[in-house]
Sequence to fold (260 residues):
Amino acid sequence: MRQLLIIGIGAGDPEQVTVQAIKALNRADVFFVVDKGDVKKDLMMARQEICERYIENRSYRIVNVPEPERDRTAPAYRKAVEQWRGERAAIWARAIEDELPDGGCGALLVWGDPALYDSTLAIVEQVIAASAMELEYEVIPGISSVQALAASHRLSLTQVGRPLHVTTGRRLADDGMPAGCDDVVVMLDASCSFTHVDPDTEIYWGAYLGTPDEIVLSGTVGETGDQIQAARSEARARKGWIMDTYLLRRPVPRISHQQR
Fold:
């Protein structure tokens, strides 16, 4: 039986790694790292720093796993994602079978938390379903970018008696702000879909959260939207990639004298 640890390592700050995650890091013999090329080599270096800082036994191995190309322009979005996950699962299965011996313990280091907008758990399930090898896995939660965003802006994501909605930029662009919900966290937004909402809506935006490159901006969409777009564009051009998220909060309706 092979064992795989899915370890959440936080949004970017090595000090966000939990005690539970550190103990898990020290149980693993092999670390499988998805290689996303030179553009994101600083992410690879951040993982390496975490390993060097917290792992006591230096006999561990790091196995780079190639990342298949994903068609982000395909009109059938869900089908394209499923195809990409299938290709990823096949590559991961070969890597685990070749590099992790029976009885060994391997690990995957996941940014943020493995349960929030991350495909690792779904792909591992595909590996188990499609492979003849015996593999069990354990999930270690981490601090997500959403939590890091709230901490950087010194705000609570929820208001008294009000729901919180978490969605993607694609869904925000298609559906707008959901009815009956004043607080919306948006992830995976490459198109700055907040530009389509009421300009009086408050926005709390953050990029590269928990890292030395962290950028945070806040205000109303009307006042701050252009600044966020400019900062996002400049940062992406400079680094070659960007990870950002934001909270949208509907303005509190003003009560007129007649309503009091």
